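CORE FACILITY INTAKE
Project code: CF-77B
Contact: R.S. (postdoc)
Sample description: multi-component assembly, two entities in total
Requested service: structural model of the whole complex
Turnaround: standard
Below are the sequence entries exactly as provided by the requester. Do not edit them.
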Amino acid sequence: MANETLIKDLENASRIAREAESAPLLGGSIGLMWASLATIALMAHGAVLAGWIDIPVAMTGLIWATYGILGTILSALLGRRISSKPGCHSLANRAAEGAWVAGGMMIATFAISLVVAMFMGKIDVVDFNFIPPAAFAISAVINGMLAKLTGYGYLKFGAIMSGVATAVTLIMVRQPEMYFVAGGLLIVSGVIPAFIETRRAN
Amino acid sequence: MSTEPNFDISQVDEVIHGRIRLAVMAYLSAVSPASFPELTEKTGTTNGNLSTHLTKLEGAKYVELEKGYNGKRPQTLVHMTDTGRKAWLRYLDAMRDIIGL
């Protein structure tokens, strides 16, 4: 290669590598779907506890089972669309996918363990209230890690707000109103950042 | 003392040293695996041309091609191998020496 051509080709390669490295996070639509569903489920749970929806409190498990099943199906459908987009295997996208899958599995494990403990008579129904703070804590860690990796401000905001939500929901853990507060905090810490992420990816 | 760059052409990996292959390796250094259409778009080349260059990179074991499906659509994913990543880093070092950075 002549010197000028060589430099031009190296500049082109460098531009391609930089563009690839800064590929936007593509999981926003999945995050938006999970955060929106969780907000609805939290509000519905709160409404049952407040007596606004006339079903036995024990049936709130059905709300969460529906949330889990519906979310998993929609994740699979949205994930298929994302996997054909350029940049979906960038470091940040792989880190986000791995972290959220692991985080989701930990929240599910936490919830299933509580169900088992309840059937064994070792805990009270009110102990399920620890799930939202645990989920917010996991969300804070994941958003913080991704914010550091990508430098995106909306993820930093999501991490801080998830941290605040962890503290607030833990303080309110024995109060039924906690579910409404958690739903509100999830809009700020999850729905809004996921919406921004979806807009950036399009 | 000479200020000339340390020019040693034998340092340059001929498999990587071409506009399209260089672009493919640059993209895969940040996004791996990448789909075939993704690579044609990012490198600005045709399917046939990309295939030829990928065959050369595959022959050197710098990339691996994974044929599969995304839903019902056939999909080819191109992975940068460990050998490829090491070769890419050596290539960048060699270029730095040649250009004198």
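Facility notes:
- Chain A touches chain B at residues 1, 7, 9-10, 12-14, 16-21, 23, 80, 83-84, 86-91 (CB under 8 Å).
- Chain A has seven helices and no strands.
Invoice: internal transfer
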